[in-house]
TrEMBL record, chain B:
Source organism: Eiseniibacteriota bacterium
UniProt entry keywords in alphabetical sequence: Cell membrane, Membrane, Transmembrane, Transmembrane helix
GO molecular function: transmembrane transporter activity
Pfam families to which the protein is assigned, alphabetical: BPD_transp_2 (PF02653)
Membrane-spanning parts: 59-79, 91-111, 131-160, 190-209, 224-248, 269-287
CDD domains for the chain: TM_PBP1_transp_TpRbsC_like
Principal cellular location given in the protein's record: membrane
Name of the molecule in the record: ABC transporter permease
Keyword Cell membrane carried by entry: yes
Gene Ontology cellular component annotations, sorted alphabetically: plasma membrane
């Protein structure tokens, strides 16, 4: 690898190292021992079968959210509406999988996934159309659509939620995704499930789309230099809408980990911000499918690690760490890019 | 009387929106998107509670909230102006940071990650006999309400009738041209972001003072509504304040209709739908400052 490429690729690692250092300050401030806490965190996430399972379970939705944001970024679009897209999609998919519950798995599962992708991509395409047609900024519109999604789902939910709850009816058995412990007994007790495999497939599909297809080429051209792409014959508006629809479809699948693989119903607020963490995942993963997988694993480990150390350090430390990683990552990236520009290529 | 009570409720709800939206007009007019309002407000609210808790004086709480707002704004300014990193990502990062940090501090000070103990609220003032007005009296007796009205007027004058405002706006439109005229682009952008930090911190103080405590996530998306109001108000203090009153009225109506057959969730969507329509050009064109969101790099100018 060229030293320049190496330097650019190291930016996320530098940011993580600095963030852990800052986190050590917080741990010290409350009178605990940073190395011991970090060692405990590492042991509880990757050192036991249950820990690995929990880490994978937390990482799974982040894979989809990270991919969703990354596809947008590649096309020069910032989709901060993944949280809304996954909410609408999980709600629609849970209702469909319950209503068609009598269908056998080979029919019900694909239909459910399709409903999730369609709902997510419809919700994602709206800001794409508004951008292409009216030049309205997708950041604001995706943000607004998050809140509209939450209100819409709680409104529609009033008619369909189980009495005195905010959850839908149980989905049909054919739509459930089995837990990984079925094949990998060491993970016993963790709800990690086949959604993870779907996530890996999605990452591969995004890799093919971005780097091996015409649409992917057009999408990246648009993101790198819109006027040049247009001059080269890329239909800007159409490509923007397509990119947002694909991004929304990926985001739409993020809720399947919970709905099909864990609880087997939709519940208001189930995602606890995975859509927003997806931005951090894409950022740290440098918008590459492989990077996204690694970053999702890292943030998944942090999420579970926080719970594991809660006895000694408040689990909120992890939220702080995640935020510091984000802020440092964007600063370090700027510094590193500046340095790289000065290096002889 | 009913109507006046409704107006009073709308005003009360609109205060934090207005303060935060007013601040963000300054930040955005200088060219920096400030999505961190939500987090700044949250930090401000906690700082108010800590200040009031430790001193027993609500004004110490307000001072602490202002300081917390400015400091959080400073983080956003350093990341986006000094390091020229992406403004949206920085704002979202700060919102996550505030959500975690406030809970972390809460566990250390109040031994609970969800709420603080009870603290004093701001006193009521009877200025010009306004407090004795029917229905509107109590809300006009709140010092921060009158201060908000004064700040909006002052903000409008500062932005459109002063040299500082003209320069700030020119930097948000064409920073290279402003720099050519010898204006310190970076300093103005810091000023814009810090003003928005101070005002969002103040908005947090109002929320905490009204509630006499801090609860986890208590800003509840208000920072995002403030951004929406600023857009609907077309990046002007008076316009933003009007939009905040409208959004406040929608929320007051929602509370009035709670328990009735009317689906209040539809009212809840109103601010967001109005914002999307405004951005798409259906309610007059809302045009952002030209250089909004673009870092200024003198080496590439």
């Amino acid at each position: 690898m060229k030293p320049r490429t190496l330097l650019l690729a190291s930016a996320p690692l530098i940011a993580v190292a600095l963030a852990l250092l800052a986190g050590a300050g917080f741990i010290l401030a409350i009178g605990e021992d940073p190395p011991a806490i970090y060692a405990l965190m590492l042991h509880e996430t990757f050192g036991t079968g249950y820990g690995i399972g929990q880490t994978l379970f937390k990482a799974t939705p982040l894979v989809f959210c990270g991919l969703a944001v990354a596809v947008g970024f590649r096309a020069g679009l910032f989709n901060i509406g993944v949280e809304g897209q996954l909410t609408v999609a999980a709600f629609a998919a849970a209702l469909a999988a319950a209503a068609l519950g009598h269908l056998p798995a080979f029919a019900l599962l694909p239909v459910t996934l399709l409903v999730a992708m369609l709902a997510g991509s419809a919700w994602g395409a709206v800001p794409g159309v508004l951008k292409a047609r009216f030049g309205a900024h997708e950041v604001i519109n995706t943000m607004m659509l998050n809140f509209i999604a939450f209100a819409l789902v709680s409104y529609l939910g009033r008619r369909v939620f189980q009495p005195a709850t905010v959850r839908t009816a149980e989905i049909g058995a054919g739509a459930t995704l089995p837990r990984l412990e079925t094949w990998w007994p060491a993970l016993h007790g963790s709800p990690a499930n086949l959604s993870l495999l779907l996530g890996l497939l999605a990452a591969a599909a995004v890799g093919v789309l971005l780097f091996r297809t015409r649409l992917g080429y057009e999408l990246r051209a648009l993101g790198l230099n819109a006027p040049a792409a247009e001059y080269g014959g890329v239909p800007i508006g159409t490509t923007q809408v397509k990119a947002m629809a694909i991004s929304g479809a990926l985001g739409g699948l993020a809720g399947m980990n919970f709905v099909l693989g864990y609880k087997h119903f939709f519940e208001l607020g189930f995602s606890s911000g995975a859509g927003f963490l997806g931005i951090a995942v894409a950022l740290l993963g440098r918008n590459h499918p492989v990077g996204v997988l690694l970053a999702a694993l890292f943030f998944g480990a942090l999420s579970h690690g926080g719970l594991a150390i809660n006895q000694r350090v408040p689990k909120e430390l992890v939220d702080v760490l995640q935020a510091i990683v984000i802020l440092l990552a964007i600063c370090v990236q700027q510094v590193v890019e500046r340095l790289a520009r000065r290096m002889p290529s | 009387m009913e109507l006046l009570l409704f107006v009073a409720a709308s005003l009360r709800i609109g205060v934090p929106y207005t303060l935060a939206a007013l601040g963000s007009t300054f930040s955005e007019r200088s060219g920096v998107v400030n999505i961190a309002l939500e987090g700044i407000m949250l930090n401000g609210a906690l700082a108010y509670v800590l200040g009031a808790h430790w001193t027993g004086n609500p004004w110490a709480g307000v001072a602490a909230a202002l300081a917390a707002g400015v400091l959080t704004g400073l983080v956003h300014a350093i990341v986006t102006v000094r390091f020229r990193a992406d403004q949206i990502t920085s704002g979202l990062g700060i919102n996550l940071l505030a959500a975690g940090l406030t809970k972390f501090v809460l566990t250390q000070v109040f031994h609970s990650s969800s709420n603080s103990g009870r603290v004093v609220g701001l006193p009521e003032w009877d200025l010009f006999g306004l407090a004795h007005l029917p229905a509107l009296g109590p809300v006009l007796a709140a010092p921060l309400v009158l201060l908000t009205v004064a700040l909006v007027l002052l903000g409008q004058a500062l932005l459109f009738r002063s040299v500082f405002g003209l320069r700030l706006r020119s930097i948000g439109e064409r920073p290279e041209a402003a720099a050519t005229l010898g204006l310190p682009v970076t300093a103005y952008r810091y000023a814009g972001v810090l003003i928005s930090g101070a005002l969002a911190g103040l908005a947090g103080a109002w929320l905490a003072s009204e509630q006499h405590s801090f609860t986890d996530g208590m800003t509840n998306g208000r920072g995002y509504i403030a951004i929406a109001a600023m857009i609907v108000g077309k990046w002007s203090p008076l316009g933003a304040a009007a939009a905040c009153l409208l959004f406040g009225a929608a929320e007051a109506l929602q509370i009035t209709l709670q328990g009735s057959a009317f689906p209040t969730e539809l009212l809840q969507m109103l601010p967001y739908l109005v914002t999307m329509l405004a951005l798409a050009g259906f309610i007059g064109r809302a045009v952002p400052p030209r250089a909004l969101g673009t870092p200024y790099d003198p080496e590439n100018a």
